[in-house]
Design brief:
By secondary structure, this protein is α+β, with helices and mostly antiparallel strands. It contains three helices and three strands, in the order H-E-E-E-H-H. The protein has one domain.
Length: 66
């Protein structure tokens, strides 16, 4: 299932989006016994920005770019 389909399922088909307080693991959505995990913009930033920083950088350095 593509990201666009996931968004439509949440918006138009009553799927429930669940996201924890910390963005370490991406959100997931479900309806009945079907579920899908995905990355949203926030989780993509958390995963990608450190690639552009020094290898020794920690997460606090990445947060200034969010």
């Amino acid at each position: 299932m593509g990201y666009h389909e996931i968004c439509l399922n949440i918006k138009d088909k009553g799927w429930t989006k669940v996201k924890g307080d910390e963005c370490i693991v991406g959100p997931h959505a479900y309806m009945g016994d079907q579920w899908v995990g995905f990355d949203d913009l926030e989780t993509v930033k958390i995963k990608v920005i450190p690639l552009f920083l020094n290898q020794n950088s920690d997460r606090s350095d990445a947060n200034k770019y969010l």
